[in-house]
Specification:
The structure holds two protein chains of two kinds. Chain A is mostly beta strands. In chain A, 5% of the residues lie in helices and 60% in strands. In chain A, strand 23 and strand 24 form a beta hairpin. Chain B is an alpha/beta fold. Chain B has one domain: Glutaredoxin. Chain B is built from five helices and seven strands. The longest helix of chain B is centred in the middle third of the chain and has 16 residues. Chain B is globular. The chains are: A mainly beta, B alpha/beta. At the A-B interface, helix 1, strand 1, strand 2, strand 17 and strand 18 of A face helix 1, helix 2, helix 3, strand 7 and helix 5 of B.
């Protein structure tokens, strides 16, 4: 904290004339006061607050920065290791020609992230930045890039001393072709004692090193592109689920295959992603306790598109890294302005679908794959006048609450009408009506939202989700937001259901909560 | 709490220097996968707009449609240059490319920040966020979020850059 003050004070005046470089930064605070609510089972604690301060300095080829995080009591549902204050990032960088050197904390991704990804997602409570060093070398024409890195991943508000990571990656491009390969070594410095005991019971020792590798290739021509990646992982501690809730501990390797295709021409475009995962979890450290969503060094996002309408996102798909295979496809078409179907302002059609099966060997007593998740969705957006538009959205979902561990699945169909109208050049109103039809789980839901905005500063919204099929509980929320330049403050209050919340395809469990919150975001 | 207030006060003071920041020295990719240095967008003659978006962000779609209208209705004496930079990661990159190609954003150039370099350089914590850079490559205006009508203020700021 003192360091941040010094840096702010030191560079405040010189920044204006640029003599001492440029200072930029951001501050974000998210605080919620929880209240008792018998309808959702009471409150976990009285309040929670997540706070970040980030400062970056740059002058010519030199850069430096830090990030401080403060969790006097983390918000409900966030990883439990986020507590207290810490300097989660401190780095110094030097860029010279085609060379880029970082000493301290950095984020990095190799390939698609299946092999290694360190990133920050504040909505998820994830920041697994690596503290150590990274060197990136490029040829002058940038056709060849090599990276070498090493350090300790962050866990909680400080880097952990339990694990070290070392990795290297090379990528090359020529014309429309690209190829690349990488290796990452996760070195266990201190294994959790519980894991060591379980490994002993399985007749093996916790591996000191887990090595992952990947090879990838891509081709782009005109509107067409194809990318493929193969990732392998050496044997790692693995708890195999047996029938009767028993577990068997063993060493097991992993692998993944990824194929991405896309095509675009005129107003049409489409993309298709196919992926197969087998034991691809790669944690910062293995643990006997329930693993935190932030305990990871690679990126295994849900393949299915993350739905943004309230009811369509009630039961999102979460990646089953032990073994799954599936695809996600999207088609987009714009009926041009002036065409018969497009009318004066055009019309947009999107058709999306995903299908995920759980692989049989990852499940007990199984020899065929069973459906884990399916979603077929269509949305049609039509603009009727310059000021009035509508969106019709349908999502047909079927998911297995046991990730394909049982044959039973739950089906739900979601229907949404979203209409917006601009009343004056500055004032607009938007309304959503949603209905979820299901004969399983909590059965039918309905939801409505009204949002009124006053450009360029204010927006207020009121929404309610109502489970009239089973529990009869209303989830009522109100919010207001004020924005000026890069400063934004939001006030919200209401009741929120328990369930999975997702960001960037990664999900965490959110307990039910009722209360009021304040969120401030500021970048400068 | 005192320390927190002090930090907040210093940050408040430093806000005055936010405008005038240079274009960050980061590289993005275009839809064909080619590297585009952000600083190469500065042509020394006209301002340009960066709007940061994601495939899962509904306000971003609305903003891009509104900006498409502005481009189509534009009758200024210089080209209105708008670059839509996707913040989507590698998982959603193909979808972002497909969406940018198939959504009819006429006159808007899509770019992609797969590794999050621009996001970190500009300290973007939520999307959409727009940035207007003047002809000299200095930040002239930024705004978080989108509500209908924000595009009018954005165009006003673009015109202000030229009339300086």
């Amino acid at each position: 904290m003192i360091l941040s003050l010094l840096i702010s004070a030191l560079f405040l005046t010189p920044v204006a004339d640029g003599a001492w470089g440029k200072l930029s930064g951001a501050i974000e605070s998210n605080t919620v006061y929880y209240v008792d609510d018998p309808a959702t089972g009471g409150r976990l604690h009285e309040w929670g607050s997540n706070n970040w301060l980030k400062l970056d300095w740059q002058r010519d080829s030199l850069s430096a920065g830090l990030q401080a995080e403060w969790y006097p009591q983390a918000l409900a549902g966030y990883p439990s290791e986020l507590k207290g204050a810490g300097l989660s990032s401190l780095y110094f960088g030097w860029r010279h020609g085609a060379m880029d050197l970082t000493v301290g904390s950095f984020h990095e991704q190799l390939g698609s992230g299946l092999l290694l990804r360190s990133w920050e997602d504040r909505d998820m409570g994830i920041n697994n930045s690596i503290t150590g060093g990274r060197l990136v070398l490029r040829t002058r024409d940038k056709r060849l890039t090599a990276k070498i890195l090493g350090g300790m991943p962050k866990y909680g508000v400080w880097p952990t001393l339990k694990t070290a990571i070392a990795g290297t990656d090379v990528s090359a491009g020529l014309g429309g072709f690209t190829v690349g390969a990488g290796v990452v070594d996760r070195i266990c410095i201190t294994a959790e004692s519980g894991i060591s005991l379980l490994a002993s019971a399985g007749g093996f020792a916790v591996p000191q090193q887990v090595v992952g590798w990947s090879a990838r290739a891509g081709y782009v021509a005109g509107g067409f592109s194809v990318k493929a990646e193969y990732v392998g992982k050496s044997p790692d501690f693995y708890a195999e689920q047996l029938s009767g809730a028993r577990e068997e501990y063993k060493l097991k390797g992993g692998n993944a295959q990824l194929l991405e295709l896309s095509y675009a021409a005129g107003g049409f475009s489409g993309s298709l992603t196919l992926r197969r995962l087998e034991n691809m979890t790669n944690r910062i450290f293995n643990t006997t306790s329930s693993p935190s969503v932030a305990n990871t060094i690679n990126y295994l996002p849900a393949l299915c598109m993350q739905q943004t309408y309230m009811l369509a996102g009630l039961n999102p798909y979460v990646t089953y890294a032990d073994g799954e295979i599936g695809f996600q496809g999207d088609l987009y078409y714009t009926f041009r302005r002036g065409s018969a179907l497009g009318g004066r302002y055009g019309m947009k059609l999107h058709v999306g679908g995903c299908w995920i099966d759980a692989l049989p060997f990852a499940l007990p007593d199984r020899d065929v794959p069973w459906l884990a998740y399916r979603d077929i969705n269509i949305d049609l957006e039509r603009r009727w006048t310059r000021d009035f538009r509508t969106v019709f959205f349908v999502s047909i979902q079927e998911n297995s609450p046991t990730h394909g561990n049982r044959k039973r699945t739950d089906a739900q169909n979601v229907f949404v009408v979203d209409a917006s109208y601009r009343i004056t050049p500055q004032m607009a109103v938007r309304a959503e009506l949603q209905y979820l039809y299901s004969q399983e789980l909590t059965k039918d839901w309905m939801a409505a939202l009204v949002e009124v905005s006053f450009a360029p500063h204010w927006s207020v919204s009121v929404s309610d989700m109502y489970n009239h099929g089973s529990t009869g509980v209303h989830y009522f929320n109100v919010s207001a937001r004020y924005t000026v330049s890069s400063f934004s403050v939001s006030l919200l209050a209401g009741r929120n259901r328990e369930g999975m919340v997702c960001s960037g395809g990664v999900c965490r469990w959110q307990p039910a909560w009722s209360g009021a919150g304040l969120r401030v975001q500021w970048s400068f | 709490m005192k320390r927190l207030i002090l930090v907040a006060a210093l940050v408040l003071l430093s806000l005055q220097v936010a405008m005038g920041q240079d274009i960050p020295a980061v590289s993005l990719t275009d839809a064909a996968g080619k590297t585009v240095a952000l600083r190469s967008l500065q042509d020394g003659k006209t301002p340009f707009v960066l709007t940061l978006w994601m495939t899962t962000c509904k306000p971003c779609m609305k903003e891009l449609e509104a900006l498409t209208d502005e481009v189509l209705d534009w009758n200024g004496n210089f080209p209105l240059r708008i670059y839509a930079v996707s913040m989507d990661d590698s998982r959603s990159l193909q979808r972002a490319i497909a969406m940018a190609s198939g959504s009819g954003w006429e006159g808007i150039t899509p770019l992609f920040d797969v590794n999050g370099d621009l996001r970190r350089a500009l300290n973007v914590s939520s999307v959409p966020q727009v940035f207007v850079y003047d002809a000299k490559g200095k930040l002239a205006y930024t705004h978080i979020g989108y509500v209908p009508g924000d595009e009018a203020e954005l165009i006003k700021q673009v015109l202000k850059c030229v009339s300086k």
